[in-house]
Amino acid sequence: MARWWRRDQASDGGEAAPSAQDRSANAAHGTLPGQVDTSDGPRAVTLGVHDSGLTLTADDGGDGRSTLAPRTYPWAEITHVWFANDLEGHSTEDDAVVTRWVYLQRLEFADGTVVASRLADPPVTTPGAVFRTGRIADRPLSTIWPLLARIHTHVTEVRLADADKTLAAGGLVEFGPLTADGDGLHHQGTRIPWEDITALRYSFVIAGVDEDELGAHLRMEFRDREAGAYGFPVRWLRIPALEVPDIEVLERLAAERRA
Predict the structure, then answer these.
(1) C-beta of residue 85 within 8 angstroms of C-beta of residue 204
(2) pLDDT of residue 19
(3) How far apart are CA 179 and CA 66, in angstroms?
(4) What is residue 141's predicted lDDT score, i.e. its pLDDT?
(5) CB–CB of 85/101 below 8 Å?
(6) Helix 247-258 vs helix 145-168: angle between axes, to the nearest 10 degrees?
């Protein structure tokens, strides 16, 4: 199949649009804006989220470029997902803080098409004294997150099954700078057996003593076998989330094999 677009540019912030269609056998749950690179430059697209997969439609944008027919991708044809969230904010004159959650997502399809999205929830105003206590939800009520979660859930199930088969056959599965095999993970020459991983998760840190911990990362704690035989001192590995495709698949693999 010929590639529709090339890789990859993030779009400006957009809002998800809930669908008003009836919940049929292949119900439409809503749409998400995105952007792709084409030979004529960046082009806005719309992702329709359905029970069976995604529909990709190129927006006309009024620039005179030809309209491209919508293309439908079942979940099995989404090969990779990159995801991170972020928090933007500013102070007001009356000691309040206005924040909004931002979601960054990149999807790669089996035909090489890559769609990038930068999506933002409506801003929320928090009194400064409350904000400074750190009492702010890390995943607030959102019109965007349910659609992203639906995509991630379906794609993770497909990709996890593929990864299990590959590892069972003695193959390797790449997660950006991490490589998985049947025995564990490899990172920059370090071998990390599955049973030595004590924690592996995506997390977003708003405030911390170490500025390097701020933001969205894959965080992994594992026993350091080289440091001593007793007590197994632990090491931490922190990788920016957008450098690790399919984080949720990796989380599931680690959880299954640590058990």
Answers:
(1) yes
(2) 42
(3) 41
(4) 65
(5) yes
(6) 50
Residues of the chain with pLDDT under 70: 1-27, 60-68, 134-141, 207-211, 226-232
Q: How many whole angstroms separate alpha carbon 20 and alpha carbon 39?
A: 34
Count of other CB atoms within 10 angstroms of residue 210: 8
Rounded to 5°, the CA angle 126-131-134 comes to 140
Dihedral angle, C-alpha 88, 86, 81, 71, nearest 10 °: -20
| pLDDT confidence of residue 10 | 41
Kindly report the number of other CB atoms within 10 A of residue 60's CB atom. 13
Q: Of the candidates 220, 216, 179, 213, which has an alpha carbon nearest to the alpha carbon of residue 199?
A: 220
Sequence-distant (6+) residues with CB within 8 A of 66 are none
CA 48, 2, 74, 76 dihedral sign is negative
**Residues 5-27: tens digit of each pLDDT:** 333 334 445 555 544 433 334 56
Sign of CA dihedral 157, 161, 166, 168: positive
**Residue 6 has what DSSP assignment?**
B
Tens-digit pLDDT profile for residues 234-248: 888 999 999 999 999
